[in-house]
């Protein structure tokens, strides 16, 4: 009996669709555990006048359903925190070893280690995805998160200073772009699983996962990414071969705006505010929130910048590099958006900044 080609094709299509439609939808989660297009967390620094166990674990959050920061009822080390709920998808998928789910975790400060691997980028984050969609969490917390078999926890070393991160939900079509951006930023990958089904489209992540030494890495690359619900982002990625200050030489000039930059400010490890080019970069020195009236950049390990007030282009960028003379030789990057609620929320955190000269 001769097979009907049309019938065979329809059967194959049916099986393919059943596989996709039966796949769990992976996304960033809200503080209440609902799927959201994106969220941002800002873990507040430990207050020197507060010795309670909660101090250093409290956080603000903002997601795609909101217009301004809220303080969470949860602590960042809780499974019910906004990050804990999102990473639960990784920890649930890991034991089952699904061939339709991939993950990749990177940090120059590996969990349970006091050493930092400076031959890789100063990058921190993780991705979890399937052939429908997934999320990318970019953050500033050394030694985080734990490998999947250990489940969720938050490092005690991350309590003292402020920390920040952004999670964005992406359709699978965006992962080829992300694949190339990760190559440029040279992440130190310490846990990953990328089944063969993804290797046709994603060229670099499997090689990075395997610690391949033969990769040709560009100096820098800028690209557009679009979230699952259509919010546009610009992603700047630099490698160790691009040795200018990413804020001054590239981001401010590309975005055509003066920037206020918040990065970890240590006395001998910081670059001064810079007004040498058409668009200037000023270091934020003091921050404020309704929940913590003042804290200094010396106690804030987060990395972000916003356009100065009055700029025609109102950008907010969140990433993983400091304005530090040594970090111009490290890979890393920033993801930027013109979303007005993100901009307004971050700008309100600025108390004062350092002028040039």
In short:
This protein is 19% helix and 27% strand. It has helices spanning 5-21, 82-96, 175-185, 204-209, 246-255, 340-347, and strands at 28-29, 35-36, 38-43, 59-63, 70-71, 102-107, 124-129, 133-139, 163-171, 189-193, 220-226, 232-238, 259-262, 281-287, 295-296, 304-307, 316-319, 332-337, 350-353. Strands 11, 12, 13, 14, 15, 16, 17, 18 and 19 form a 9-stranded mixed sheet that branches. Strands 5-4-3-9-8-7-6-10 form an 8-stranded antiparallel sheet. A two-stranded antiparallel ribbon has the order 1-2.
How would a textbook summarize the main sheet?
9 strands, mixed
Structural class: alpha+beta
Pick out the low-confidence regions: 5-22
Secondary-structure element sequence? HEEEEEHEEEEHEHEEHEEEEEEHE
What report would you give on this structure?
It is built from 6 helices and 19 strands. With 357 residues, the chain is α+β, with helices and mostly antiparallel strands. Strands 11, 12, 13, 14, 15, 16, 17, 18 and 19 form a 9-stranded mixed sheet that branches. Strand 14 (281-287) and strand 15 (295-296) form a beta hairpin. The longest helix has 17 residues, at 5-21. The radius of gyration is 21 Å and the shape is globular. The termini are far apart.
């Amino acid at each position: 009996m001769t097979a009907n080609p049309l019938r065979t094709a329809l059967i194959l299509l049916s099986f393919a669709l059943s596989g996709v439609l039966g796949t769990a939808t992976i996304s960033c989660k809200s503080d209440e555990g609902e799927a959201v297009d994106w969220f941002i967390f800002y873990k507040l620094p430990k207050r020197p006048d507060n010795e309670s166990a909660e101090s250093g674990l409290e956080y603000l959050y903002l997601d795609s359903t909101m217009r301004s920061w809220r303080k969470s009822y949860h602590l960042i080390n809780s499974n019910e925190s906004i990050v804990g709920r999102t990473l639960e998808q990784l920890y649930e998928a890991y034991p089952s070893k699904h061939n339709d789910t991939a993950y990749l975790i990177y940090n120059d400060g590996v969990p349970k280690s006091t050493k930092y691997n400076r031959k890789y980028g100063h990058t921190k984050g993780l991705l979890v995805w399937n052939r429908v969609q997934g999320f990318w969490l970019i953050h500033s917390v050394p030694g985080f998160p734990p490998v999947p078999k250990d489940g969720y926890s938050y490092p005690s070393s991350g309590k003292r200073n402020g920390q920040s991160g952004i999670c964005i939900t992406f359709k699978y079509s965006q992962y080829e772009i992300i694949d190339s951006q990760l190559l440029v930023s040279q992440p130190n990958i310490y846990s990953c699983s990328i089944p063969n089904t993804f290797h046709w489209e994603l060229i670099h992540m499997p090689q990075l996962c395997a610690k391949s030494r033969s990769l040709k890495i560009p100096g820098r690359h800028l690209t557009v990414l679009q979230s699952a619900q259509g919010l546009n982002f610009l992603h700047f990625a630099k490698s160790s071969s691009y040795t200018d200050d990413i804020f001054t030489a590239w981001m401010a000039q590309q975005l055509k705006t003066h920037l206020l930059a918040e990065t970890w400010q240590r006395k001998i490890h910081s670059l001064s505010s810079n007004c040498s080019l058409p668009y200037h970069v000023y270091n934020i020195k003091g921050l404020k929130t309704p929940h913590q009236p003042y804290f200094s950049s010396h106690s804030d390990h987060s990395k972000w910048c916003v356009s100065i007030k009055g700029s025609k282009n109102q950008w907010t960028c969140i990433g993983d590099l400091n304005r530090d003379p040594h970090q111009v030789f490290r890979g890393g990057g920033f993801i930027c958006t013109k979303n007005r609620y993100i901009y307004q929320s971050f700008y309100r955190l600025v108390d004062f900044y350092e002028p040039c000269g």
